[in-house]
Specification:
601 residues, alpha+beta, 16 helices, binds adenosine-5'-diphosphate
Amino acid sequence: MKKNIIDIIGLKNIIMIVFLICVFFPGIGFILYNNSSEALLQNIRQSLENRALDSSGMLEDIFKDKITSLKLIAENHDIKSMDWNRQKEELLSHIDTLKVKRCRIINKDGQSISTDGYATDVSDREYFKKAIKGDSNISDVLISRADGSKLVICATPIINQSKIVGALSYGIEYQVLSHLITSIKIGENGYTLLINNEGATVVHPEAGCDFSNVSIFESAKSDPSLIELAKLEKRMIKGEIGSGFFKQNNLKKFMAFAPVYGTQWYIALVVPEKEVFSLLISLKTKFIIVTISFIILAFSMLYLVLVYLSQIKKVHDLQKNADDNYRQMIEVTELDRLKTEFFSNLSHELRTPLNVILSTLQLFEQYIKGDIIQNKQKITKHTLAMKQNCFRLLRLINNLLDITRIDSGFFELRLQHIDIIKYIRDLMQSVHEYASNNGLSLEFTAELEEKFINCDIEKIERIMLNLLSNAIKFTSKGGSISVNVSTTLNNVIISVKDTGIGIPEDKQTVIFERFRQVERSFTRNYEGSGIGLSLVKSLIEMHKGKISIKSEIGVGSEFIVELPSNLDIGNYPIDELSTNQLINGQYTGKVKIELSELNRK
Ligand code: ADP
């Protein structure tokens, strides 16, 4: 038969391939995607954190420069003199270079005067407190007391002969700082912001956001959407260089941050996640598309395989049906042939004795016309022949009736408890005459003197007479027939052995089938209907026994009957008849009928 693809690849392998496509490859893809997206994310994080660090460094440098130049001015003798007139002149000469509106001198008590003549008390300002302690510093964003503008103050101590005699300061306009911060751009929609160490926004270029003293931590208490941002800002204030995600106005954003050393500020670069991670998002989309395609492909394959399998199964079923039908057809044809053969045998079997009877009757008519007394001897001889042929007809009809009864289930056992050895021995004596008439010797042997079993004796008789009739029929003159009865633990074994023509090996089982005979050419045209052995087999099986055969052509045949010695009598009541009672006067008629075929030789 032509091999199909499933035979070649194997169902297991196909399932494995589907599994690989469905689970393994997307799994590998997922791991690869996960690893590469992790690496990509790490890379992006790192580069944005570096950008934040660079920006903070730039701010730091700018403020350092401013402090350095302020410190240089504070070194000047006129400044150190704390004589305002001298100081003012010196300071005015620097105003343009510093690009500031005014400079201010503060004495140790916090009283200050600026180059534009505005005097005020700054003793409460942080930058003054730090400067007077010797710490040059940059203040947070302050509101000027002179003109209300927003400023960031650079302040440095004035040291004369190792003593702090005052402080020097000037203000940087908030716009300068704001411009500086907003000029740091990332991507299309990214921005930079500055917060102070209280979590308040110093510079925020997003619409509406300006310097405010409101701490993010306070705002987060009333607005939960700010919690993520507040957490990040907490990390910023701790001085961490890092990054993280937060959500604002339903937009996921990424923030990288770093402290601006030398100030109380922290710079953060903010980018919408979509923008900075566009590569990652496209990678994710591609991965999902590829995975779904693989799964669709795998299921399509699986579907095709299943469709293919179901088609193959259908073809197999059809093929099996066709085979069954073919076998049935052969059986029916064979049965038909057997029936035809059987009817032809049957017709022959019916016609032969009838012919004999008819021609004998014609002879009788002649005798009646003549002298009956004179023909008495002939009439007696012919009456015997007629009787014989009537027995043949009776046997045939009995067999046919029994087969029909067995088939319809009306044939029942009538069990009796009898000595089977004695019964067979006596039966054999009735057959003796038939054997010797056919020039055969008949022998009976038994292992035991007696053996009582439960059996239907009428049926055992039919079995034995059938087997003996065949043995005599198929054994040539001078041959011998022996019957032996032996026992095993649970069985009685009856063997009927002859030295006849034997049965070919290929026919040894079919002869037990109904209407079967060995070819006539082989049996040298012995007659028969072919139902004797099938009836024997059915009768033995009714006793829960079995029959087997050993035979060799030209040597002889042995039929071995095994009967259970203790047949379960549950369904069958036993007739307690004695063996003697049964045997007395019972055989003669039956033996004549069963062996009626033998006298034709
Ligand atoms: P039949 O009425 O034709 O004898 P049986 O069923 O009794 O029917 O036997 C079937 C066939 O088995 C016989 O026709 C014969 O060919 C073969 N057979 C039966 N017994 C013997 C035997 N003892 N020796 C040789 N052939 C036998």
